[in-house]
Amino acid sequence: MYKLNNIMEQMVLRAIDEVADEQQFCNCPRCRLDIAALALNKLPPRYAVTSRGEAYSRTDCLELQKNLDIISVIFEAIKIVQRKPRHGG
Asked: Do residues 33 and 64 lie in contact, with contact meaning Cβ atoms separated by under 8 Å?
């Protein structure tokens, strides 16, 4: 069965994990998803249907500049979420 995947979503979630290892910010499920949503809205999607397409899209996303873009957007999203966290309540 085929499934449509946004490879950028996987890349952003992995990058948030990497940043969380080095930076202090609330990494509760709500804040983590808010950070991911903000970042994904700023980044271009990378969709794939087949395993082959998924592998190509991942390779494309691993280019240094794209990886730096992802990290940069995540840092922006962290700042926004830190200013107005929505996890309490």
From this structure: no
pLDDT digits (tens, 9 = 90+) for 38-84: 999 999 998 888 666 555 566 666 676 678 899 999 999 999 999 99
Q: Are 85 and 29 in contact (CB under 8 A)?
A: no
What are the structural domain ranges in the chain? 5-83
Q: How far is CA 52 from CA 37, 49, 88, in A?
A: 26, 8, 42
> Are residues 50 and 5 in contact, defined by beta-carbon separation less than 8 angstroms?
no
pTM score, whole prediction = 0.82
Give how far the C-alpha of residue 64 lies from the chain's centroid of Cα atoms, to the nearest Å: 15
CB atoms within 10 A of CB 77: 24
Contacts of residue 70, defined as CB under 8 A and 6 or more positions apart, other chains included, come to: 8, 11, 12, 15, 39, 43, 61
